[in-house]
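Quick one: examine the sequence and fold tokens given here and explain what the tokens say about the fold. Here goes:
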Amino acid sequence: MSSKDLEEHKKKLEVQRRVFAQARAFIQRGKRAGIPDKYLRIKKEEFSKLLDPTFHKNSDEFSKEIYNTPQILFKKPFIVIDGGDIYSRKKAGFAILFRMIACDYYGAYYDCSSLAGQFQVIKFGKDENRNDLVKKIKDEQIIFINEFNPKNFSVHLDSGTSFDQILEHRDDYSKPTIVTFALPLAKGMSNRNNAIKDDRCGNYFAMLSHVDLQENENVFRIKLK
């Protein structure tokens, strides 16, 4: 091997080491974000199979765009996912979260019902209160709120206001928020009862529940089969 070939070989090895180191770093970020191991390596083909082909006319192309150019996911503050079942929604949400983390960002996963319960308590830790949690979630680069369901909210408890504080802030400062809806969103005459018409869940969740009834330029839609 000539000195020139040896130098090129060394450069290739160095590039490979950097790529592997970066991949490991993103895996660690995904784990810290709350992504379970089995959802860390969801392939493009797996994601494509989750999509509703009647909504996404070319599921393979849509999936390819997300995996090859994930920067498009940062163009709108809300990424709304519905359809499918609890397993496929979680899988799709984690796939999107990891694609965004791999763009050199940090993220965090939250279960919606757990958050709603925490927001109904004024003080829930020795040195932490509801306002501390709200601020923490506001400041996250990317968040994934899984399984929003109106039944987890009570008209007698004001957890919707805390969600509004978070979502309004994230909307204002263009911080991406992924939300999966446990119930299919209303479309035309279908599922119309799932469109929220009061503010017990907060104004932002109510607004997001209408995205298939009226176009919203702040929402990136993903529908599962």
User: Anything to note?
Assistant: Residues 3-32 form the longest helix (30 residues). The first strand starts at residue 78 and ends at 83.
